[in-house]
Each structure stands twice: as C-alpha cells, then as structure tokens.
Write a structure and sequence with these properties.
This protein is mainly beta. It folds into two domains: about 55 residues, no CATH class; about 270 residues, no CATH class. Strand 8, helix 2 and strand 9 form a beta-alpha-beta unit. It is elongated and about 75 Å long. The N and C termini lie far apart (about 55 Å). The chain binds zinc ion. Zinc ion (ZN) binds next to loops.
Length: about 325
C-alpha cells in the first residue's frame, strides 16, 4: 500500500515517508513496514501474518501506476488522495486514486486501476457505491501492452488496431455502461490509451465451395458474433500531463444513468457521453454468405477502414495518419 499513518499524522504517503519512523495501517491499525523505493515504488507492507486485506493484492505495477497518476494529476494542480475510504463500501475497500479540483471538493473522481479480473456484479456494486457517495468513477485497465499480439494500425484514423482482444466481462461492462470507451494504462511504457470496443465475429469460410456457375468464391463467409473477444481500437499514446479530467453522466444499455469520468486528449473539444462510435462493422451479402467490412466515419461519411502493420515503436509514437484522398479506391 502507498499510505499509512503515524501517532500524529493521519495520512502519510510512502513517497514522503522516512526510515525509522513508526507507521501503522490506516485500516487495521497494525504496525506496517516502510519499504523505500529503489527499483520498486516506495510503499508500506504488513507483516506476513497480518490478515488485513489492505494492500494485500497490490502488484508492483499497480503501485507504480497509482504513484504515476498521483504525481501527474498533482502536477496539473489537482488534489489527490491515495487509498481513500469510500463511505458505505463493503469490506472497507479503498479508492486507488481520488482526485478533485482544490476549489471544488464536491467534484470528486475515483480512478480505479484494475489489472486483475473482477465480476460484473462487483463492478456494478462498486459503481453504485460511488454514485451514492457522489463520486464519478474512471476504471483504468492496467495492462502491459507488450503482451498484445498481432498489433495493426488503422492509418485513416491514426490509431492502433487489435483484433480479438480478450476483453473481460468487467471491461465490457465499464465500456458499455460508462460512456462507450475504456481507458488503458500501458504498465510497460506509462502511457495512456483510449479504447473503443467493436463487435468481433468469427468467420466460417465458404471459399472452398463453388458458386452456381462453378467459380470459387473466396471472400464470402458465414459470420457469427463472438462474446469472448472484441476488436479493440486504441487511440494514443497519451501522456498524463496532456490530458484533462472530466466528469459527467452516461446512460447504459440497461437504461440507467450513472456518473462517470473520462480523460480529454489535447486539442479535442469537450464532449459528453455517449461518445459517438467512429467505427462500425458492416456486412454485405455475397452470392455465398456475407463479407465483413470495417468502416470509419470520416468527414461525415462512412469509408472502408483498411488496417496496416504497426511500426515497432507503436507503444510510444502515434501512428502516422493517411488522408482520405491518399487512399487507393477499391
Ligand atoms: Zn491493515
């Protein structure tokens, strides 16, 4: 964990803690050990047999992400509290990073750094308890992007394109119910990305069959929607320093409206959810089955969005954009 207290101070962050001082857990009151950071993020740890849940499941990447967010948001003049108590939350669960403008303490945002899997029931209940507390949540998917396979780009949109991303059910829930986007933090490069989920489909080729006049059909197939994956568009990478934090209300597919929060990249006008989807999948009937097309909305119309290979530095450099005029007609 990143915070503890002393006899006289109710809140101390590990980044400013000192060796030799006596620190205790803010939740259970047991003595904790201060671990200064050299290769890892400075933090506090319970003794092995403590039985306290606070900080028990925090990976080094999680601690680093919390610290990175706190430092970046403070540099923007925002107030930040780590491991903040959430009134009414079962099990004394703490908010990873609580943020608010210094002059508007009512406009609070809870940034939850999520690397592990949780059920839809858990994220729904957590979101409801934020709502009761007047806090807008921003669920941030922590992922080492080095683990992503077959990375492509969509040059028309200057974005990264990942087919068959195995989205967890909580990620889909957060995406669909809290504005239509999910923000990612690449734990290997400390960069932020805005993710858009596009329905994924599995194809069953009909290419080996012959058409009515005997010619082989190579493109057409039968397509079925798959729940295990989504196709993922990633916009970025963004540095935290360039992002603004906003809060608002989004309506989910269940018709409920919930508070939510999101980042606004530099140069973008301020929008409110639901954010429009700039990509869609369209099926076209062929002689045998259908063909599937990915399309992007550009300058008010839908155009074919061909994918291309990604450069090796895609995790740190935004892909080059290709203009609509330069796209060869197909
Ligand atoms: Zn404790």
């Amino acid at each position: 964990m990143l915070t503890a207290r002393t006899e006289t101070e109710p809140y101390v962050e590990a980044a400013t803690a000192r060796r030799g001082k006596a620190y205790v857990c803010r939740v259970c009151g047991a003595p904790v050990v201060f671990k200064p950071g050299r290769t890892r993020t400075a933090h506090f740890a319970h003794r092995p047999d403590s039985g306290c849940a606070q900080g028990a499941l925090m990976s080094p990447a999680h601690l680093r992400a919390q610290e990175h967010l706190a430092a970046g948001l403070r540099a923007r003049g925002l107030s930040v509290a780590l491991e903040a108590p959430l009134p009414g939350a079962a099990g004394d669960r703490r908010i990873d990073v609580l943020v608010w403008p210094p002059d508007r303490s009512g406009a609070r945002v809870a940034i939850e750094v999520q690397a592990s899997d949780i059920t839809v029931g858990v994220i729904e209940a957590r979101t409801a308890s934020y709502e009761q507390a007047g806090v807008a949540p921003l669920w941030l998917r922590l992922l080492d992007f080095g683990a992503l396979k077959v990375v492509q780009t969509l040059p028309l949109r200057a974005t990264v394109w990942i087919e068959r991303y195995p989205a967890r059910s909580w990620e889909r829930w957060a995406h669909d119910h809290l504005g239509g986007r999910l923000w990612f933090l690449d734990s290997g490069a400390d960069r932020l990305w805005r993710g858009l989920f596009v329905a994924a489909h599995r194809r069953r080729d009909r290419g080996l069959m012959k058409g009515g006049s005997g010619e082989p059909s190579t493109r057409a197939a039968d397509w079925t929607a798959v729940d295990r994956w989504v196709d993922l568009e990633l916009e970025g990478p963004f540095d935290l320093a360039g992002l603004k934090l906003r809060r608002g209300v989004a309506a989910g597919p269940d018709g409920r409206r919930r508070p939510c929060a999101w980042f606004v990249p530099p140069g973008e006008e301020q929008q409110s959810p639901p954010f429009e989807a700039p990509l869609r999948v369209r099926f076209e009937a062929e002689r045998l089955g259908d063909s599937r097309h990915l399309e992007a909305r550009l300058e008010g119309r839908w155009v074919p969005a061909a994918s291309d290979g990604a450069r090796s530095d895609w995790r740190t450099v935004r892909p080059a954009a290709r203009s609509l005029l330069a796209t060869p007609r197909r």
